[in-house]
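Batch manifest, entry 17 of 40.
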Amino acid sequence: MAKDDRDILEVLKQELSFIEEGGYGRSVRAPWLPKSIFQDSLSCLNYGYPYRAHPCSECHLLEFVGPEDRSQPVPCHFIPLNETGNTIEGLEMEGNESKMQSSVKSWLQGKISQLEAGTSPDFSQSVD
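Output type: structure tokens
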């Protein structure tokens, strides 16, 4: 499935670090443009490309997306982040940036802990 040769644990750790360091804050050059979780960080295979050079099917994050949402335009925004099924897509619609980042941060911490403990994360499900 994924053709991403990066280590998934490192990708998740880098994303967590990016969030903790305020990486999704407003840009100085374009403060009117919102930032997109995963897409506007090095977690995205297409980061820095003005177009999608790689299909999302090559990304490790797709493994966390349910089969029914893998064909979405931004499938990583459909990762279930918690047991209630919140997703980035849904939280974006609520317009609560703080809640969204907090939910993603908690999800990342849970997946990182699972991987570091040597347990295989349930890729299509959230953490408790």
